Amino acid sequence: MLKVTPFGEGWVLEYEGRELPAAVPGCVHTDLLAAGVIQDPFLGRNETGAAWVGRREWTYTTELSAANGQERTDLVFGGLDTAAEITLDGRLLGRTRNMHRSYRFPVTGSAGRLAVRFASAYTEAEAVRDRLGERPAAYAEPYQYLRKMACSFGWDWGPTLVTAGIWRPVRLEHWSTARISRVRPLVTVHQGTGVVELRVEVERSDAAARLAVEARAGGQVARARLDGGAGAVRLRVPDVRLWWPRGYGEQPLYDVELTLLHEEVPLDVWRRRVGFRTVELDRRPDAHGTGFTLVVNGERLFARGVNWIPDDVFPSRVARERYRERLGQAAAAGVDLVRVWGGGIYESEDFYDACDDLGLLVWQDFPFACAAYPEEQPLRGEVEAEARENVVRLMPHPSLVLWNGNNENLWGFRDWDWERRLAGESWGEGYYLGLLPRVVAELDPTRPYTAGSPWSGSWDRHPNDPAHGTHHSWEVWNREDYAAYRSEVPRFVAEFGWQAPPAYATLRRALPAEELAPDSPGMLHHQKADDGNGKLERGLARHFAVPVRDFDRWHYLTQVNQARAVAAGIEHWRAHWPVCAGTVVWQLNDCWPVTSWAAIDGDGREKPLYHELKRLYADRLLTLQVRDGAMVLAAVNQSADAWSGSVTLRRMTVDGQVLGGASMALEVAARAVTDLVVPRELRPDGPKEFLVADAAGLRALRFPAPDREIPYPRPEFEVEVTPGAVTVTARTLVRDLLLQADRLDPAARADRGLVTLLPGERVTIGVTGWQTPDPSAARRALYCMEPDPMDRTEPA
Hints:
By secondary structure, the chain is α+β, with helices and mostly antiparallel strands. Helix content is 19%, strand content 32%.
């Protein structure tokens, strides 16, 4: 029977004539940090002091003793980052140049000094660039010339920390006669029967051995003979329970086991969990353009999505528990789709296992982002090899529903002056429209493929045409007010977002010695977007008088603005289902403490945006919209049940007067949207008025004027603290009340974000992790809209 021996102990990293203890899996930066050679690059401006690490060679060594008594022993690396040479007592085992692949080297009967020498990623990438020629990219770093996580070279939310190391587990495999080298599970459903077809490939040490495979799943057993190195076995599981996205049903998973046999003696076993479901991508043309609607088990979905970046710039630090925590946060916010963005990695099995369990659909980008990628060797062979390996590796996961060829490269070719600069040189089109769809069609025909995001489906249209396919909406953040989200109805919004700083406690940890200000040196270092602070300030100035000396107020208002901006988009687009079939917010998470578009900051703390997503992505949503000069209440019902009841409308003033009201019947079919026209006499007029709509515990608000024009009363409220809770009772209008729990204690968390209270209303906010509850401290940690003090500039 094949025996696996983990091989992560006993490694050292060579540095300046010393041998530093090395963690495997890990990377050079984490080893140097543990040894005290570098300071934490996440703190202050230490990132710049670690830049030298990515510019030199590094060698890991250990002693190998591979004797085991079996015919063969293989040394298997789950991942090497990136350009490496592997030797055993000076004998070359092999060379690698791809972070996204695993590697296997025969070491039968061998022993001695094992060394893995990593070239600088810069040196390798620049050599390929010199050979193949310059290609344009969104950033000056040479990430497109090497099959490595692009964002380790920096991004507009990430640090430049160019890693090297043995970043995934290492093992020794000892075997005799034959071993399973690859299993490709094709999982389908036909009239209530689940079908698992296992395409098997084996490696033999005995070419004449009579081999068979036995498969088990759902109480069913099937066998097949293997002639040569490949074969197939098919199982039919009657009356299977379907796997559903969260919110649509349960997520039953079935254990599948495939055993390789030689004359009834087990040689090797392959085990995975699968889920039975069907998935389609409806891209049919219609009166509005070309759709992009995911269909799971015949059910058409509005995808409530988030974009996922690597959760740490050093991915080896992201363990199973952290994946569970972060993806659990996504599920708790109502998310049902996670897009694994193309500037990162193919994630570990722990990521996809968690998505399987939580019912989170996975949209998987191939790792290409924001650059023209050469299609010549040595890159082309590496791209095909990594695609083939990872498509097969991820096939068992029912959560995986879509393969995507790249992030923004088709758009870049058309709009970012690439076509002229390339002058006919290759740039990746052959990958996205040729190689990758062929690989997916050959290996994983059960899932759809799309060439890129954004992509309109044809060069006859602009790649980012909102009427066709996927759309990225970045002009709003870059140049406009977030109200501009309401100016169009894309078929599927795969990226959009608004920045805000991280939680206060995250900033204090990252910048411990700094007096915080929006433009303080540390704050600017932890703001990687081009003119990021300028865009933040211009976005604020359209709605508020911008604080000039009050950092705490600035911090609160930027977080409010982020939540409101994303709400403006999602409310509008959800209200136009089924024309718009999904929103994927940029972004869920961060890889370090930074001002960014994330809903969860680099220390795992939830911004107000995160809590706002709970409202925006709930099955039922109320939103007040202006259409063709009329105000309508859109009631969005994504649940499986019809929504019947009534809605109460109130036209109010900011000082608490009710100017008018009405009650209207509400009837919304399952998975549908209903619009109710607001009576003209209830529409708010001027900055002193607003409209409130309440139904079934849900609320929609409409303030027709920017906050800087609203004569808010000075907020008055009472605060009561009990174990695990803070209760606020409003005596006046209290708009966008926020308890910043991390100001009470860095470990404290609140269970809700922004809430608006009318006079006489109260809210109870659950708080965990606060060891010394105190009403005065709670009051100091509460923020809300208020009349502008003198410490403000005039609006821009």
